[in-house]
# Entry
Amino acid sequence: MTTIGFIGSGRIGSAFAHLAVGAGHDVVLSNSRGPETLREVVARLGSRARAATPAEAAAAGDIVVVTVPIRAYRQVPAGPLRGKVVIDTLNYDPARQGRVPEIDAGDTPPHLLLQAHLRDSSVVKAFSTVFFRHLADLVRPAGAPDRSAVPIAGDDAAAKKVVAELIASLGYDAYDVGPLAESRRFAPGTPAQLAHLDPDGLFAAPGRPVTAARLAALLDQVA
Ligand SMILES: NC(=O)c1ccc[n+]([C@@H]2O[C@H](COP(=O)([O-])OP(=O)(O)OC[C@H]3O[C@@H](n4cnc5c(N)ncnc54)[C@H](OP(=O)(O)O)[C@@H]3O)[C@@H](O)[C@H]2O)c1
# Structure
């Protein structure tokens, strides 16, 4: 089994950790306020979970999930993540999470920002498209006709394989969209990013399963 470190343990981080523990993985959670503030979350997750500092979670993880507001990306500890596979869930949502001047200036697009910061890590964009409340709803066993595919993108094929295996263990299929730059095709506002939302109920409705064929058609809508 894998140890998964989390830099950020909010809505997506804790929902992801819940799936990971359910699949038999160990998780090490961290946030900005310190491990003692994660006591309740860790207690809910059980004996496979512990809390640590971001640097400790980064060092402990075989795979590390970075799931902080994007404006905090510079505080993600690059040293202990050197040579590691990093999952990047970050979306740029300035209205809710604040502006990032280097994105607004056009220096680096949001989907490449974490890899630019973690230049010695293998960043794979994944789980940036699933609303946190839908993460558990959409889990299905391998081979189920309504198992969902989620898009992944990254520049390191071996890292993508590792992430795809993790995703499979959690109850989804990974759909490889290509290099990290191609994650623009499932960035906020694209059809693929909204794939799981039921147009009638949006965030209040249960998540809609999305097959690989449906996901491919949605990704193709972005040239
Ligand atoms: N919410 C969703 O459904 C969803 C879906 C897909 C992708 N995303 C993306 O995933 C990311 C996380 O979203 P979220 O909704 O889970 O956010 P959230 O609920 O606000 O949680 C953010 C987490 O990041 C931690 N954090 C903030 N600054 C940090 C730092 N410098 N070092 C370590 N940890 C830090 C926070 O800790 P403290 O509370 O201690 O500050 C908190 O645990 C965002 O980039 C978002 O765009 C979200």
